[in-house]
Every structure is written in structure tokens, then in C-alpha cells.
Design goal:
Shape: flat
Radius of gyration: 29 Å
Strand content: 15-25%
Distance between the termini: 83 Å
Helix content: 25-40%
Structural class: alpha+beta
Bound molecules: zinc ion
Length: 246
């Protein structure tokens, strides 16, 4: 106890209780700074490499071969394999896709403008159909693919469906973009997932004017692929078509 000037006794002030969450953590600060440093080194290396490619493109405007691990700008494959690619103003492509460009099967702009075409996977994913449906639509002439072949023309590497060539049939890809949805998990955390476009619109209205709608309406339940969205939260695609509104 201490005595004050007027003779009364005061209780000495106690330091506030420790709060580990509010104390400066040197270990965490070091880890954060180290992570930032590594990230900046990585960005710097990428930036240097891009600069080097830009300079080389001025010297070789038609493009040049490039070795390394790069994801192909068209098929997205080969990112983990050390192999030769082709680099030009449209991006870096694997030799298989570049051969398809060189032969005229697909335009060079396919590499820089992925919004101008659907892959077979895009069709499956966007319209929620199984791969057999895409094959059937190709067989029936509903979809007209540009096919990239591999193994000397023995195997199909990839099929592209250009929107320009399906103007009446396929909508622009931006019309079918999903939207981010937030929900609470059981332990109260925020969780985010992407909800497919068809969960929040009237499908018939949304695809009005595009022939793909007619072909979707002819599908049977076994043709739909419903594994990528939450059945507990959204009605399945067949339901949206077949349910009697009355
Ligand atoms: Zn490729």
C-alpha cells in the first residue's frame, strides 16, 4: 500500500493481464517477412523472364521455340513436363497445339482469347451434361468441333467449339459464369464456393434464342451430370426443366 499526499492509502496499479493474441510475435513476423521475400523473388524472376521473352519477340516476331515447364495457353497441359514449346505474340503453346495452328485447324488467336471458344470439357461443365452428350451433339451436327490431333493424327488431343461458328447455338461464355456464394460452416467459419449459373436464373429465359436450349430439353435424366454442384442446396437441372410449374 502507498500513502498519497492527503494521507489516504491507494492500491498500487496492477499491470493489465497478458493477452498472448495481442503481443507482438517475432517468430510470426519473421515467417511473414521471409514469405514476402520469397514471393517477391519469385515475381521478380517471372518478370525478368517475361521481359526477356518480349525482347526476343522483337527479334523473332513470328515466334521461337522455348524449353521449360509451361502450361499450354490452349490445352493447359504440359505444365509439369520439361519440354519444348512455341512462344509467339499469342502466348506459349505446346507443340501439339502449335501444329494445329500451323496446319490451319485452329486460329492462332485461340491461345490469347479463350473466351472465343468452348472446349468439350467447357460444354460438359457449362451445360451440366455428361461427355457422351457432347459426343452425341457432335455426331448429330449440333456442335462442329475443330479437332487438334496428336500421335501423328492417331489420337484426339482436344476439341474446340468456336462461338463464331455456333452463333445461333452457343451463348457467349460470360453468360454462363458462376457466382461466388458465401455460407457458414458448422463451426461458424465463412466458406465460399462457386454456384453454377443455372442455380440463380430461369434457364429457359436465360438461354432464349440459343439452339442449345432445344437440345438440352430433349435430354433424358441419365444425360445430366449433377456431381459438381450441391444437390442439397439447389434443384437439379432435370427438375428445373421437367417440373410442372402448376
Ligand atoms: Zn496444348
Amino acid at each position: 500500500m502507498q500513502s498519497s499526499d492527503d494521507g489516504t492509502q491507494t492500491i498500487p496499479k496492477q499491470p493489465p493481464p497478458r493477452d498472448p493474441d495481442r503481443e507482438f510475435d517475432w517468430e510470426k513476423a519473421y515467417q511473414f517477412a521471409d514469405g514476402m521475400l520469397r514471393l517477391s523473388e519469385l515475381c521478380f524472376d517471372t518478370w525478368k523472364e517475361e521481359l526477356h521473352r518480349e525482347r526476343k519477340l522483337k527479334e523473332f516476331p513470328k515466334g521461337f521455340p522455348i524449353d521449360g515447364r509451361y502450361p499450354c495457353a490452349i490445352c493447359g497441359k504440359h505444365a509439369s513436363e520439361e519440354e519444348q514449346h512455341w512462344c509467339d505474340e499469342y502466348g506459349i503453346k505446346c507443340r501439339i497445339c502449335q501444329d494445329a495452328i500451323d496446319s490451319g485447324e485452329i486460329p492462332a488467336s485461340a491461345a490469347s482469347d479463350s473466351e472465343s471458344w468452348y472446349s468439350a470439357f467447357d460444354i460438359e461443365h457449362s451445360f451440366d451434361v455428361k461427355s457422351k452428350v457432347v459426343r452425341r451433339w457432335v455426331k448429330e451436327g449440333v456442335l462442329k468441333p475443330r479437332t487438334i490431333m496428336s500421335n501423328g493424327g492417331q489420337s484426339v488431343h482436344m476439341q474446340l467449339f468456336f462461338i463464331e461458328e455456333h452463333k445461333d447455338t452457343l451463348p457467349p461464355k460470360e453468360l454462363l459464369e458462376g457466382r461466388s456464394v458465401k455460407e457458414k460452416t458448422k463451426d461458424g467459419q465463412d466458406a465460399f464456393y462457386t454456384e453454377p449459373w443455372f442455380c440463380s436464373v430461369n434457364i429457359v429465359e436465360h438461354l432464349k434464342g440459343y439452339k442449345i436450349l432445344e437440345h438440352m430439353q430433349k435430354l433424358s435424366e441419365n444425360d445430366w451430370n449433377t456431381k459438381h454442384f450441391k444437390l442439397s442446396m439447389v434443384p437439379a437441372m432435370p427438375y428445373l426443366f421437367y417440373a410442372d410449374p402448376l
